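User: Hi! I'm working on a homework problem where we have to compare a predicted structure to a textbook description. Could you give me the structure for the chain below?
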Amino acid sequence: MSKLRVYDFAKKYDIPSKDFVAILNKYNIPVKNHMSALTDQQISEFENKFDKEKYQADLVAEKKKETVKETATTKPSQVAPKPSSDTKKTARPPQKNQQNTGGNVPKKADDKKRPVSGNQGQQPKVRDHSKKEKTARSVYKRIKDEKKKSVQLNQTFEIPEILTVGELADVLEISATEVIKTLMLAGTMVSINQEIDFETAAIVASELGFEVEAIKIEDVVSKILEEYDEEESENEIPRPPVVTVMGHVDHGKTSLLDRIRKANVIAGEAGGITQHIGAYTVNIKNHAITVIDTPGHEAFTAMRSRGAQITDIAVLVVAADDGVMPQTVEAINHAKAAGVPILVAINKIDKPGADPERVKQELTKYNLVVEEWGGETIAVNVSAKTGEGIESLLEMIIMMSEMEELTADPGREARGSVIESQIKRGKGSVATLLVQQGTLHVGDSIISGTTYGKIRTMIDDKGKRLKKAGPSTPVEISGLSDIPAAGDDFIVLENEKEARQLAEKRKEMQKGERQRRSNVSLDDLFSQIQDGNIQDVNIIIKADVQGSIEAIKQSLEKLDNEAVRINIIHGAVGAINETDVLLASTSNAIVIGFNVRPDKNAVKLAETEEVDIRLYRVIYDAVEDIKKAMEGMLAPEFREKVMGNAEIREVFKIPSIGTIAGCYITEGKINRNDDVRIIRDGIVILEGKIASLRRFKDDVKEVNTGYECGIGIEKYNDLKVGDNIEAFTMEKIER
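Assistant: Happy to help. Predicted structure tokens:
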């Protein structure tokens, strides 16, 4: 994208730079001064919309308007109003002390207005001056009204869907006081900087005699992406395929990936399921394959759908001893909707009772006919446990990618999609990106959704630092202003300033959309609660990563029925804080925390406001609890009770024993038999048991607030200074 300064562009239209800046802003092209740089997209957009002849005509009309205004506001003595019958009636006879003099006889035209001549007293002159001033004002008002009517009849003003009172006044070319006065008469108290929606602005304009219509603010980034995709490149070369692995829970999807990657990730997964989307690169016979791992549990429907939209091949894992399950059908539908070819991996063929032929038969119900039966779907028998058929599976993936003729141009500026995002200690906002076109470099300025930044660091899936990443490469980057939403597109722009301006413009657009949505939903909420027809369950979601929020939201929305409706009123990444509790208290909501913990102030406020906070590590449990509560079946037998908190201030590594945490008890007390969880930056790292609890050299049963102690955790040594240890017990609830 070439640079063109505003002052150079203004020369083309022979318009002063200062005026040209205002014109560009009027056409939704954000520039600050005559030195601002314009992109090719902005220049093309302006040239298509701007009419120089119309602009010059409007300029001439404006000058005429100013001339008329100057003429109408001249001194009253210079105005010669037309004679009227009223002036005859109001004329009075001369006073006794007045004398007629022949040298001061008025002209005949003035005789009608002045029946007497000669020297007159001061009082009649004042009366005539006031009369002329009133007449002058009426003339000016009539000219102004006629001019205003002609403008209104010939022009319709365009306004955005959300704007401030001052902006509306500027567009209509009237005083902001008139707009505020009109709104006050309608019963709405506003300030000049307060935002109003289009409906309110249209009513105000109509009251003032103007006609307006809504214009939608164009998303410049979306246009840039569209032009990027439409641009043809002659330098494309073959690229590695992007493969998404789908399947039902417990069908061996993670074990299959584990066999391929030679890395065991099951041990660290809560509930035996993959909690977050990951991307990996594997090599087979000098061919690279990028694998996106979408979890198999039904709670991750949204994440699985997103994976299918950015992939080239979908690998559907089906257990030979279990067959096609409901989640398998969902995966098939997502892949078909995205137009992605499906490769079936029939897993667990080594288990007793495995029947691959039955699986193939069941797949025909969903229009997946295997090649050996005359269809087009490739099916491979594999065993994640023994490794049988793994190489054949990878070879089939490579063969399908060659048939697809996947290509990309590494010489272009990078664009792609966000796979996952989160906040990491010491790094800030980080995101896992999949480069789909071009090459991404350290130092590039990117924009994704409303997030922008300059790439500071870039690492691959093996933790190796990279300076650049080509097509079909997954990388984790840092340097973003905020965490982007998983599934958003990203693209490299010329500089960080341009990325920031476009991101702020997007935020303004989304702010207006959120305001409209929230107003409508709040009105519906109150009206439906008052009617008693629908019982609303308001929920606030806080999680460790963005993908989990989307997954929980998608799962809970499926629970809607005629009697109860789920409203997700807020969802964000990070620990539960006081703001979340206050929002829950105001909206009568339940707070769900997934892999996060509330801070101390939030816990105390929740107790005061009687806000229900539910904490989970497995999404299935959260969905089941809400489902049972909606059905009236939830009757918990146990409740968690926090006993105490300890802060790790020093870490000691002792041979043959492991890592011991030197702790200070900040609240409550720690008991030797309590369950504990390790919390790092508000995120739950581990739940486990206390292996040892000591004061100096003595083993103790408990340690109270204000004392120091040493704590060892069973089978866990990755303790760090600054971590918090929370001790809790499960107490029985009497029914």
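For your comparison, note the following. The chain has 21 helices and 34 strands. The longest strand covers residues 638-654. Good luck with the assignment!
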